[in-house]
Amino acid sequence: MDKLTLLNKAKEIREKAYTPYSHFKVGAVLLTKSGNLYTGCNIENAAYPVTCCAERVAIFKAISEGETEFNEMAVVADTKRPVPPCGSCRQVMSEFFSKDTRIHTANLLDEVKTVTMDALLPYSFESDDLNEDKE
Ligand SMILES: O=c1ccn([C@H]2C[C@H](O)[C@@H](CO)O2)c(=O)[nH]1
Ligand SMILES: [Zn+2]
């Protein structure tokens, strides 16, 4: 799918963000291999750390609907540079994305930076590292 289509959808969903504390709104869109779109916005909480980022909301919505294969993601926020996803979201993305999955990040000035999963989180901890057969 065209990255601008995904980014425009992310901009639209960003308006739904629940951000009474930071007033920092983020929108995310996830495209599955089957061609479905899952959207997410950040959802904050009076207990601040309970907040969930837009990226993880989109991924968790998709997983909970039985989708496990993804093509690309788009993320938008009102930042000076295309918004860099936080470390927790990078780890969650790496659980479900391939090394070459592209993440389109952007700001409201329509500056776009596309990065692969591997570039976003190199040398990531993954299931193979659990070494479950050792004891
Ligand atoms: O990539 C990001 C970075 C931050 N946030 C949210 C978390 C919190 O609600 C607010 C400020 O950190 O922005 C996201 O949703 N995605
Ligand atoms: Zn995050």
UniProtKB/TrEMBL annotation:
It is an enzyme of class 3 (hydrolase). Substrate binds at N42, I43, E44, N45, A46, A47, Y48. The active site is at E55. Pfam families: dCMP_cyt_deam_1 (PF00383). Residues 1-128 form the CMP/dCMP-type deaminase domain. It catalyses: 2'-deoxycytidine + H2O + H(+) = 2'-deoxyuridine + NH4(+); cytidine + H2O + H(+) = uridine + NH4(+). Zn(2+) binds at C53, C86, C89. Signal peptide: none annotated. CDD domains: cytidine_deaminase (cd01283). It comes from the Bacteria. Keywords: Hydrolase, Metal-binding, Zinc. Its cofactor is Zn(2+). One of its GO terms (molecular function) is cytidine deaminase activity. GO terms for cellular component: cytosol. Its EC number is 3.5.4.5. One of its GO terms (biological process) is nucleobase-containing small molecule metabolic process. Belongs to the cytidine and deoxycytidylate deaminase family. PANTHER family: CYTIDINE DEAMINASE (PTHR11644). This enzyme scavenges exogenous and endogenous cytidine and 2'-deoxycytidine for UMP synthesis. This is Cytidine deaminase. It comes from Terrihalobacillus insolitus.
